[in-house]
Amino acid sequence: MLTKRIIPCLDIKDGRTVKGTNFVNLRDAGDPVELGAIYAREGADELVFLDITATVDERKTLIELVRNVAHTVNIPFTVGGGISSIADVSALLNAGADKISINSSAVRNPDLVDELAQEFGSQCIVVAIDTRFVDGEHIVHTHGGRRPTELRTIVWAKEIENRGAGEILLTSMDTDGTKAGFALELTAQISGAATIPVIASGGAGSMDHFVDVFTTGKADAGLAASIFHFKEIEIPALKRYLSHQGIPMRTTR
Amino acid sequence: MKTVIIKYNAGNVQSVMYALERIGAPYLLTDDEAEIRSADKVIFPGVGEASTAMAYLRQRGLDKVIPSLKQPVLGTCVGMQLLCRYSEEGDTTCMGVFDVDVRRFPATPGLKVPHTGWNNLTTMQGPLTEGLTENPYVYFVHSYCADVCPETSAVCDYVRPFSAMLQKDNFFAAQFHAEISGNVGQRILENFLKIDKRV
Q: Which residues are catalytic (chain B) (predicted)?
């Protein structure tokens, strides 16, 4: 049976993880490669590396990081942040990334989704959507959720699917950082409308929040950052719990 | 031992190369016929679209070379599909090593296509899955799949049961990405590299 996926997200700046972590056994808590390898060993189903600065100068650092991750980690991983061209994607895939994620650049230039899907195949093109509830509507935001667009989230989700995206990474800016749970209604709405998988992000604070996002929220994958980094929730325990709740989970031994 | 990865236009071959490096197996990435024929093991990867990939193989005569190989050959993902008889993707006549067709998953409410993520193998047979625990999980990303047939060596179920692995003589194939399927995938690759049968 196809399992639901648990995905830790690592924020990267200058090739280092930004947020602190509680991994005392890490030789270097800021080393994304080592942290990624630990998550993979613990049973994470995929990893997402988000380059939160991603200026041109920092690209080389990122490529080097991707190469090291690919060399070390034996599960799929996605790289996002500042990607806006075929050349960017080509460089990351050639360095060993399994998928790439685009966000603001897709809003700015929707044809980019078509071009990337055609060039590299839909399976490696994730479109990230940052969304916020404004005046009774879910509206797509860019630039880390700071800048509103004219796009309704559901309309944009269908558009990127039609343009060839392989997956949607849906982050609710309303729940992000609250630890009060995922945006269930919105996630269910988008996942129900989409024929491609939806990764839910923003708001995870407890194991039950993951149960909710996979049942009520109909998500295909759940993504979180700090709760994993700070060991508030450990992945093996989370997957055991979800499994006991009847959610299909990959077990590793 | 000489392991060759066939170089062609349907590749994110990078992750296959890294997986072999993790195992400590030296490899050569090439589309040269003499190099391919002299290899002890041949890996035929693939990510991409079937008709484009077949056109490329035909242009270089690799569509004749690959089916005639005598050493163990492992096709993965689109590589596996191209070893089948026919693919609905781009209405493509494939190499016909395996006597089965590749069809798109039918649209089914609540089941997303591509089939993306970790799913388990059942009814496993043959050397590649030796030593694995029951119903192990491997990573899939695909919209097309081969039906279950007499050459099926592992089954996966999504929308309907399909061939997760195929085996015939010296030809082995996996629909999933062994190279990023954790320790299970690594074991499958190691098992393949241990096969010493030539036909």
A: 77, 177, 179
Q: Domains for chain B: give ranges and CATH numbers.
A: 3-194 (3.40.50.880)
Whether A3 sits inside 8 A of B118 (CB atoms) is yes
Please tell me the distance from the alpha carbon of residue B172 to that of residue B165, in angstroms, as a whole number: 7
- State whether the Cα torsion B47-B52-B54-B59 is positive or negative: negative
Rounded-to-integer distance, Cα A92 and Cα A62, Å: 8
Q: DSSP secondary structure string, B129-165?
A: GTTPPSS-EEEEEESEEEPP-TTEEEEEEESEEEEEE
Burial (Cβ within 10 Å: 0-12, 13-18, ≥19) of residue A93:
buried
Residues of B in contact with A121 (CB under 8 A): 47-49
> Is B141 in Cβ contact with A196 (below 8 Å)?
no
Q: Angle A32-42/A56-72 helices, nearest 10 degrees?
A: 40
pLDDT reported for residue A21? 53
* A11 catalytic residue (yes or no): yes
CB distance B112–A220 less than 8 Å?
yes
B77 is known as an active-site residue: yes
A76, closest residue in chain B (CA to CA)? B180
Under 8 Å between Cβ of A157 and A179: no
> pLDDT tens digits, residue range A208-231?
999 999 999 999 999 999 899 888
Domains, in order of start, for chain A: 5-244 (3.20.20.70)
Q: Of A45, A51, A88, A130, which one is the catalytic site residue?
A: A130
* Closest of A32, A26, A110, A102 to residue A64, by C-alpha: A32
CA–CA–CA angle A200, A235, A71 (5° rounding): 90
* Rounded Cα distance, A50 and B171, in Å: 39
Retrieve residue A65's tokens.
Answer: 């990081």
In the predicted model, what is the mean pLDDT of residues A34-45? Answer: 94
Q: Which of B15, B117, B119 sits opposite A98 (nearest CB)?
A: B15
Q: Is pLDDT at A24 greater than 60 in this prediction?
A: no
